[in-house]
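Lay summary

Proteins are chains of building blocks that fold into shapes. Our project writes down both the chain and a compact code for its shape. Here are two examples, one after the other.
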Amino acid sequence: MVLLKRLPLLVFGPALFVFLGVAPLFFKHTPEFRQTYWRWIKRGLRVVLRLLSIEVRVSPQSLQRLMEDQNSVIAANHKSHLDVVALLSIMPDEKWVTFSPKVELYKIPFFARGFTAAGCIPIDRDNPRAALRTLIKAVSEKPARESLILFPEGTRWRGEGVGPFKAGVMLVAKAQKRSVRPICIHGSDKLLPPGSAWPKIGAITIEVLPSFTPDEASTDENLARLQRQVAEAHERLDAQT
């Protein structure tokens, strides 16, 4: 039964991928195309998750926080390739977001067209200082309602709980006088752990935590505060499952 439900993905998945790569060729000059493009992405990912029988659980309070979020940098933990899909699927249309794919992906014209249409920020991960400068400059040009989503662990964390956070998210927020919006993603690694090619059926829980503005404390202290908030939320969700 599950296999039958997932069979449409063999058609819908590639069709969505091709559509998102080709659409900018025809629509990129239309008014407010970028916002329309993000809505297509979110709706397409919701269909993908539904066909995979993966539920994304998010409370009304978390959704309200996203709808009201302004002038922030979003920081989420990262344990699975499903994290991006799940996070984008719950974003309300009132909240605009963007990502920072590695610059190597822009060498593939199909990807480059889609990333550019979405307003993503290419970064060179082999040059952290240059990447940080790129992010700070790009965020300075974003409207208050649009937030850059960063995964402070830097890569998928394979251990228990939440991995060590890197300082980039805090440096970007402080440089542009933005708040930090912590988000905890729980359960994605159980459905699609590193090394797996096909996700299991199940649920992912996303909790949007209260934002905070980095204070005059050191970057390390503010970063520790961020990591503690996400880790405590992850532990709390662990205890509920």
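And here is the second example, written the same way.
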Amino acid sequence: MFFKQCDKLTPINQANDEDNKTFTDFLRHVCKGVLDGLGAFLNRLGIRPNVITMAGLLGNIAGGVLVASGQLMWGGIIAMITAPLDALDGTMARLRNESSRYGSFVDSVSDRYSEFALYAGLLVYFIQTGTWQDALLVFLASMGSILVSYIRAKAESLNYLAKIGLFTRVERYFVLIPGLIFGFPRISLWILSILNNFTALQRIFYVRKQAKTNGEIIRNREE
């Protein structure tokens, strides 16, 4: 099912896209052998990729509920266990030759809900135990996460490239989950609040650079 598959790029964009490999791409390359083996094993058991996708989503929702109830460590552990499922469902779909644009769409949507479940848990937790500054940190971190994903989606719908930036979903989880498990969520949120929004700005200026190179900004001003 939900294998992330990008729309076809022009040859020029393909060349540029190859130069914009993210840390997520690096991890997928390094872990490809393990993911392929595990994905093939689960396929032989008759488990479908959409089951893995739903397990990941439900696991993150459960983690968010635990965080909201004050059990940050267990919420973080559940999130850590279910996080790799995001890559596994795509591997299973690819091995089944069941990749599709709709699958990519649903996979991306489930990723957003999974991430927001943890932010929602932290928001409830800080409303009960923290200050308005803590709640504001959750808002800023989640806002940056939304923008990072939205900017790329919107840019690519307009035939720009936006697959760049310091903090993608994997990096965000590498910061958020340890903060939950080891009890320093505020530090994680400070880092996420700053670097998520920094990544969003990176993508905005990258798209602007492409528009300027194409002469679109000048034409719009003259119109």
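What can we say about the second shape? Residues 7 and 157 are 9 Å apart (CA to CA).
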